[in-house]
Amino acid sequence: MTDRQPVWQVEHDRTQRGVAAALVPYGLTPQEYLALSAVVDGEACQGAERAPDVAVVPTDPLLRELEKRGLVDSTPDESSGDLLLHVRPTDAGSRIAEAAASAVADAERRARRSPSAD
């Protein structure tokens, strides 16, 4: 039995480390980056059209952290009895998401060009 990881696992791990490192200058974790990007891009919305904001559960810790840092704003959704929040990116959140997306894309390209063995 060998302790070697499959090539796909090594490449995946290397890519994840590269992405995490690329996000450090923006003060984002990979999870925060994905959440912020979903709000900025409207991808968290269901349906064919992008909504102007995203409805989420108010207790989401990622949302609270992004809001505390001024990257998103939220308002209660009265039609849900305030069980949901409408979330919009702030100007700062949009700028950081755009810059971080470029850094993540660069990190992913570098990982694909690296040899398979670490």
**Roughly how many Å is the radius of gyration?**
17 Å
Q: Helix amount, in percent?
A: 40-55%
Q: Give the N-terminus to C-terminus distance in angstroms.
A: 20 Å
Describe the biggest sheet? Answer: 3 strands, antiparallel
Q: Give the count of structural domains.
A: 1
Under CATH at level 1, the class stands as Mainly Alpha
Strand order of the largest sheet: 1-3-2
Shape label: elongated
State which percent range the strand residues make up: 5-15%
Give the count of helical stretches: 4
Structural class: mainly alpha
Mean pLDDT: 79
- Give the topology string: H per helix, E per strand: HHEHEEH
CATH superfamily, by name, is Winged helix-like DNA-binding domain superfamily/Winged helix DNA-binding domain
